[in-house]
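anyone else get weird line breaks when pasting these?? whatever heres mine. first is seq + tokens for prot A
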Amino acid sequence: MALIEVTDMAAERIRDLLEKEGKEKSHGLRLKVVGGGCSGLRYELAFDDEVGEQDTELDQGGVRVIVDEKSALYLVGTTLDFVDTLQESGFKMLNPNAKNTCGCGESFGA
């Protein structure tokens, strides 16, 4: 099972954002799980140009994805998607490790 899978829609959106910020050559997308939110854990997505010794770096759809060791435990098998519909727009994490999620979809429990 892959650590993270990035859908084509998400990869395209990430590349667009990196290009707008002039970071397409130097940065990758860091996925992180931190404490907080209604259900105890929440996702953080940010552009980062540093990869630590304990980080895993992946290439998904032409996008560098960086995950720290602690977050990887919660993200194994997760799919990062991007949706843009009348009802919602943004990145969406489909995490098989999430035992429960909050109503707003911003946090989860494992």
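and prot B, same format (seq, then tokens)
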Amino acid sequence: MIKASCKLFLQLFVLLGIPGLAMASGGAGGNHIDLTTHWVGYLSLVIFAVAYGFVMAEEYTHMRKSKPVLLAAGIIWGIIGWIYTTHGFTHAAEIAVRHNILEYAELFLFLLVAMTYINAMEERQIFETLRVKMVSAGFSLRQIFWLTGVLAFFISPVADNLTTALLMCAVVMAIGKGNVKFVSLACINIVVAANAGGAFSPFGDITTLMVWQKGIVSFGTFFNLFIPSVVNWIVPAVIMSFAVPKVEPATCEVDVKLKRGALVVIGLFLATIATAVSFHNFLHLPPMMGMMTGLSYLKLYGYYLKKTHKNAEDHPDYDPEKAEERLGDVVAFDVFRSVARAEWDTLMFFYGVILCVGGLGFIGYLAVVSQIMYVSWGPTTANVLVGFLSAIVDNIPVMFAVLSMEPEMSMGQWLLVTLTAGVGGSMLSIGSAAGVALMGQARGMYTFGGHMKWMPVIALGYFASIATHFFVNGRFF
């Protein structure tokens, strides 16, 4: 994995050193300096490559991924600021970095609200109740394979693909138990389904959210990727389903109940999504403003839950022997606890990535890469390769780089790169957050090698989805 990434960065480094692709250091018009062939540019590339190497090795080093990219972002912008200051351009780097921070702030606030709602639904035992009902339903392993895949595909467009994958994996682990073959196949299916489901919704993946917030693709236009996304998942799922063991697992009876107000929280989340879409589509305001407004819905309802809260002992049906069944009523709902449980490492990671890529773009590298990929190779080839790159490197910096390049493309090509960046990570278990998380959750059963065995089948679904996109969405090209 790390060798592949180093090779990729080495190739980029060589391309950037080719005469004619980058100007020598000096004034590039106005108060901008082209540093693509300057030692600052080369050092920045090395710093980013090393930092991202640590990110990809997180499974082995156990160092949170936000730490190296935060340091890299500070160093890259620090040396950029120093060079610009010594040349008398005291505010150029400041203006550029403020632009990057504004982009991050919109993404941060949007995700913070989404994560808070997901945590609130988890606290109200919505996901646990769904999991228990599936476990106790008495499905066969093949039925569970298809059911978890379908649910992963349709839940991930609303909840993030990581949360969806973890929930479905918990079901698979509870039912499959020691059946390594089934757990491995089901986890691969879940990863592919969750990533495919997130590709056709602005809320399903960080990359689609970034494209929507940038204003390139409208909210409704994303749903034209529904059929290609279905193809991306269904092709490998059908083939893998024949390998699922024909076993009837033992059923288990577990009783878990929704906490008070759980269904209202779901309704408020849907209302928050509607508010964000309305703010963006009709009022032409950033979607994060609608999300922050929606957070107030949860805060006000949380206030109501807290004021009307009663301990289990005060309930007329209180039974000391079954007190654990009413554990959810012991502690009152606290919305700030849900805020605190947001994935802060992920949010800080986004900051580091956006600032790092923004710094490389300010140096001039993104313009060079854009020239190579989207002019020399053509947008279709470039966008298909974006998917393969997303299987090795996280799709967030890849998509942010594409958005920063702003290549002139048709709407069909923008939908294509949205699709490939979203589903390309399914080809390797390390290619998406869902895959990495499931390797930890199903340790020893869902592995890199086990996923790699089915890579040709997943790649077949990848190319089938691209062909489907050209066929059903040809009017956008």
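btw re prot B: Residues 138 and 251 are 5 Å apart (CA to CA). Strands lie at 26-27, 33-34.
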